[in-house]
Design brief:
By secondary structure, this protein is mostly beta strands. The chain has one helix spanning 6-18; strands at residues 26-28, 44-47, 56-59, 75-78, 84-87, 98-101, 104-107, 122-125, 141-142, 172-175, 181-184, 194-197, 203-207, 220-224, 229-232, 244-247, 253-260, 269-274, 279-282, 294-297, 303-310, 319-324, 329-332, 344-347, 356-358, 371-374, 380-384, 398-402, 408-409. Strand 26 (371-374) and strand 27 form a beta hairpin. Keywords: Signal.
Length: 410
């Protein structure tokens, strides 16, 4: 028997999930051909009746919401080179059962998973569709044995970031190809992996580094395609309250980095590098907005990634990690006045292979902030533990998490 609560979940997710529909689908009426042979080679087709009979839908990609085909798929023909993942909940929600299938065809009512017959509400088609099919679905997950460790109870304020529910564990946010934003928690923590919402592909920059409005909860900044910067106040459970417009014109900035308290006034600040290569500090006002910006300096056009990684050299000041266009990694010690001291080389090369770098604070539980990195085309996440040394160095990496290669992690 199908779970009765699926109807409520389906209704709650339909509006947001529709924005993530990336498939081009066409209903094809039955003509001379019948059964599975109606499906064009190189396509995925689903049918309203067993054995490829009834109405047919040609599917070109993942579908978070099946619209009029919701709860109508009885059989399928997969003549692509990709796996397909069928799910009985909208949005590829991992809380409900799913199964993956490879090239070929089949009828659900005659398969090993008859519970999918006329019960499919979303599907994914692509090279990674089976990688997270069923239990984890579309978000980043921690590797067993390499999960975050609890932080020291007395961790100071400048080190308390990256934890969205105040349980002393670092947490992940990840955005997938559908524009869904997910929160991932360690299995030992009180948090639950959850879907934050859909439509996040409208954002060109996402940044977080602790509390920006004085309520001791992790917040988020997002810049949309129109150049508007938005503040999302955290609720303390991995989700956000009503967003607040910070201001427009932020498309002039090549990169943004939430970096904590850089000015020494106890309020978290933001860094931004513009198209001319000038780096600016935007002092936070503890209400989610900023005061008049201050120029840090020029020459930053040589940097293609900025990370507010926390106090990397144990001097109780927020620091910056930056990657240059040659693939070298640099440590910039904060001076407590919104700028930085003499930089140190902490990565001699090869860092351009990573899609993104991110700081979640102390992940290993030793009281020192760490760095995570994700390489394109790889389904693993790397952890570089911080040493806390004066030069802000990093230890050898280890595999930290698993995720589809197309996912953005921060």
């Amino acid at each position: 028997m199908r779970p009765t609560f699926l109807r409520a979940l389906r209704g709650a997710l339909t509006a947001g999930a529709a924005a993530g529909l990336i498939a081009t689908a066409t209903t094809v009426p039955a003509e001379a051909a019948s059964g599975y042979d109606r499906c064009p080679w190189g396509s995925l087709c689903v049918f309203s009746d067993p054995l490829g009979k009834g109405q047919m839908l040609v599917v070109k990609g993942g579908m978070l919401d099946l619209g009029p085909w919701d709860n109508r798929i009885s059989s399928f023909a997969n003549y692509t080179d990709w796996p397909v993942c069928f799910n009985i909940a909208p949005g590829l929600d991992p809380k409900e059962g799913a199964s993956h299938y490879y090239p070929g065809q089949g009828s659900f009512d005659e398969s090993a998973t008859p519970e999918l017959d006329n019960a499919v509400s979303s599907l994914d088609l692509g090279p990674e569709a089976d990688h997270f099919c069923a239990s984890e679905s579309r978000y980043a997950v921690y590797q067993w044995g390499s999960e975050p460790k609890p932080r020291p109870a007395a961790l100071p304020t400048y080190g308390a970031f990256g934890d969205v529910n105040n349980d002393r564990y670092a947490d992940l946010f990840s955005r997938n190809k559908f524009g869904q934003l997910w929160t991932s928690h360690a299995s030992d923590s009180a948090g639950k992996n959850r879907l934050v919402g859909s439509g996040w592909n409208a954002m060109t920059q996402l940044a977080r580094h602790g509390d920006y409005n004085g309520d001791a909860k992790e917040d988020l900044y997002a810049r949309d395609k129109a150049g508007v910067l938005w503040f999302y106040p955290g609720r303390g459970d991995g989700t956000f309250g009503t967003r607040v417009r910070v201001g427009g014109g932020w498309n002039t900035m090549r990169d943004l980095a939430a970096a904590g308290d850089l000015t020494g006034d106890g309020k978290a600040d933001l860094l931004a590098a513009d198209g001319a290569g000038t780096l600016w500090t935007y002092p936070g006002d503890a209400k989610g907005a900023f005061g008049a910006r201050k120029k840090v300096g020029g020459g930053w056009k040589a940097m293609n990634e900025l990370v507010g990684a926390g106090d990397m050299n144990s001097d109780k000041r927020a620091d910056l990690v930056a990657r240059d266009t040659a693939g070298k990694l640099w440590f910039y010690p904060g001076n407590g006045r919104g700028a930085f001291g003499t930089r140190k080389l902490i990565g001699t090369g090869g860092w351009n292979k990573f899609t993104e770098l991110a700081g979640l604070g102390d992940i290993t539980g030793d009281g020192r902030p760490d760095l995570i990195a994700h390489a394109p085309g790889q389904t693993s996440l790397r952890l570089y533990p911080g040493t806390g040394a004066a030069g802000g160095g990093l230890k050898a990496p280890k595999t930290f998490g698993s995720l589809p290669s197309s996912v953005l992690v921060f």
